[in-house]
Amino acid sequence: MASHILISALILLCFFGTCYGKGLFSSLQRTLVANASTKQGEVLKSGLDKITVTWTLNQSFPASTADAYKQVKVKLCFAPISQKDRAWRKTKDDLTKDKTCQFTIADTPYDASTVQEWLVERDVPTATYFVRVYALDSSGHEMAYGQTTDAKKTTNLFEIQGISGRHVSLDIAAGCFSAFSVVSLFGFFYVEKKKAKRAQ
Ligand SMILES: *[C@@H]1O[C@H](CO)[C@@H](O)[C@H](O)[C@H]1NC(C)=O
Ligand SMILES: *[C@@H]1O[C@H](CO)[C@@H](O)[C@H](O)[C@H]1NC(C)=O
């Protein structure tokens, strides 16, 4: 009886833990070659500009490598410079906890199109980014990846300028203008009141 429980526990542990789809970024092979339309240092505007992403299997790997790839997830990811001091964007090796890639560009079957065009969504904040492509198995676990930057994530990065960043100066101008209006309105009443007093 006790041994049954022990074995069941071991199987469960094995299932959820070490044996079953580790889910660690460091365990993934970089078998995909990803390419984005963005240029190093380019600045894109969220809500306006588009990114086109393409990917293929790296020809150094046999075509059979991709046999188990069923799905592809294309993600927009924060570059290290935009993760500094921001725990909510932190890179974790455990992919279920990793916060590097928070925006989904595409989620398609592996055999479908290998070109995806994406309008940078309006909620993408101002930051420096790169694009990563994950290949998933039939149960949705990451098996391999490719990305538009090097392993250290320092090359070929691009910037996105968020909506809020663009409208700040306009908001300040509008704020100043309304403050000015209120002041001049009071000033106007004050002058009128004085005039009225003098007239009496
Ligand atoms: C990536 O795309 C650019 C322009 O679309 C092209 O010039 C370049 O050769 C591509 N690189 C790869 C590795 O596909
Ligand atoms: C393809 O993979 C090989 C071996 O890992 C690597 O040396 C090469 O740089 C990769 N090619 C591209 C275009 O990423």
Automatic annotation (TrEMBL):
Q: Which UniProt keywords apply?
A: Cell membrane, Membrane, Nitrate assimilation, Signal, Transmembrane, Transmembrane helix
Q: Which Pfam families match?
A: NAR2
Species of provenance: Coptis chinensis
Q: Which residues form a coiled coil?
A: none
Please list the GO biological process terms of this entry: nitrate assimilation; response to nitrate
**Residues spanning the membrane:** 172-191
Tell me if NADP is a UniProt keyword of this record.
no
- tRNA-binding is among the record's keywords: no
Mind telling me which GO cellular component terms the entry cites? plasma membrane
GO terms, molecular function = nitrate transmembrane transporter activity
Enumerate the InterPro entries for this protein.
Answer: Transptr_NO3_Nar2 (IPR016605)
User: By what name is this protein known?
Assistant: High-affinity nitrate transporter
Report the sequence similarity comment from the record.
Answer: Belongs to the NAR2 family.
Question: What functional role does this protein have?
Answer: Involved in nitrate transport.
Signal sequence, renumbered to the chain = 1-21
